[in-house]
Specification:
The protein has three helices and four strands. With 89 residues, it is α+β, with helices and mostly antiparallel strands. It has a single domain, classed as 2-Layer Sandwich (Alpha-Beta Plaits), CATH 3.30.70. The strands form two sheets. The protein has a two-stranded antiparallel sheet with strand order 1-4. A two-stranded antiparallel sheet has the order 2-3. The longest helix has 11 residues. It is globular. The model has no long low-confidence stretch (mean pLDDT 95). The protein binds iron/sulfur cluster. Iron/sulfur cluster (SF4) binds next to loops.
Length: 89
């Protein structure tokens, strides 16, 4: 399992989650070149340790455990994973 960032992050990109993630698996960070162009932030499912620290700090409630992800946002699961395949590979 991994946590997933969904639609509310689009246009928000608050980054509070980035600051609390203990394994630095949320990208792009503000200091990364891709930050400005990206619509939202993404969680690397291969690195996320399911700690849940990012959930309460998100001001727009965009982050969910996979089992809690609302049905309307299930498409964001591959959206998060695919970003790391295409942008970070
Ligand atoms: Fe990072 Fe924990 Fe959130 Fe996973 S659940 S993205 S490890 S803060």
């Amino acid at each position: 399992m991994a946590y997933v960032i969904a639609e509310p992050c689009i246009g928000t990109k608050d980054s509070a989650c980035v600051d609390v993630c203990p394994v630095d698996c949320i990208h792009p960070r503000k200091d990364e070149p891709a930050f400005e162009a990206e619509k939202q932030l993404y969680i690397n499912p291969d690195e996320c340790i399911d700690c849940g620290a990012c959930v309460p700090v998100c001001p727009v409630t965009a982050i969910f455990a996979l089992e809690d992800l609302p049905d309307k946002w299930t498409s964001f699961t591959p959206v998060n994973a695919d970003w790391f395949k295409t942008k970070k590979a």
